[in-house]
Amino acid sequence: MISLIAGYALDLMIGDPQGFPHPIRLIGKLIEQVEKKLRIKCNNDDDDDERKAGAVLWFTVVGTSFIVPFLIIFLASKVNMTFSIILESIMCYYILATRSLRDESMKVYTSLKNNNIIEARRFLSFIVGRDTEKLNEISVAKAAVETVAENTSDGVIAPMIFILLGGAPLGFMYKAINTLDSMVGYKNEKYINMGRFSAIADDVANYVPSRISAYLMIAAAFITKMDYKNAFKIYKRDRLNHKSPNSAQTESVCAGALNIMLGGNNYYEGILESKPTIGDDIRTVETEDIKRANKLMYATSLLCLTIGVILRLLL
């Protein structure tokens, strides 16, 4: 608990350290290297062989991501317990992405406020997968809100829950699962087989945390005096309006709390992808909604930390 609280505080104060080696980037490098070696060994014309290689990739990366920090903390505790707590606090800081999520989305906000749509599109392209070149101001703001809402779960609340359950090692294990899905969990020709295991595992790992995140966000909407009643209504109605069983959980709450409509069709690499909408078009999305989404995200994270610590103390 001490390490989680300290790590969360460091994350809020410092954010993502630019120019420094980041453990999550190291996990990404590990994925690239293991995938490369597995593709050499497996028969790429054999779907079953590729799927087996994908499972090996997952267990190798996830296992390594848990064992390495576990051993570091264990060995540090043999030297000095305070040193061990400091190390784990730094690890928790790297795992959480509260400040980073806010900072990256607020770059879009600042550009829109300065009437620089070109710069806003560029900053948006760093945090979303959709095509941004032709988006207007409303579409840019909406995409930024969707990113904050969706990543409140897998970037903040879910890793916090895993840390509460098993410390930084379990937190890094979750981040490895999440990173694997973002790198290989696609249904394109290259990854339809190799990434299948990673995609399913990510859905399983996020199933409970995403729903906990949604209910915490509804409570946060009440605390921040947003429309919590509509947040609950839209959540119950639109929480499954995504191909992933988890992605729309917090997004639907955010749409309801802000009384806006999210989701809908978007272009990805020039190809139109049809998606259902989330929420009601009570009012038009505006630039200020990016700040409101971040306020909701911060309140949700503080609520999760508070409840999590209390539960650990009681149990």
Can you give keywords for this protein?
mainly alpha, 11 helices
Largest sheet: 2 strands, antiparallel
User: Rg, please?
Assistant: 20 Å
Helix content: over 70%
Cα-to-Cα separation, first versus last residue: 13 Å
In total, how many domains does the architecture comprise?
1
Low-confidence stretches: none
Averaged pLDDT: 94
| Percentage of residues in strands | under 5%
| Global geometry | globular
Alpha plus pi helix count: 11
Strand order, main sheet: write it out: 1-4
Structural class of the helix and strand makeup? mainly alpha
Q: List the helices and strands in order.
A: HHHHHHHHHHEEEEH
How many extended strands? Answer: 4
Report on this structure:
The protein is mainly alpha-helical and 315 residues long. The chain has one domain. It is 73% helix and 3% strand. It is built from 11 helices and 4 strands, in the order ααααααααααββββα. The chain has helices at residues 2-14, 23-41, 47-79, 81-95, 98-113, 117-125, 137-184, 196-223, 228-238, 248-258, 288-314, and strands at 262-263, 266-268, 271-273, 277-278. It is globular. The two termini are 13 Å apart.
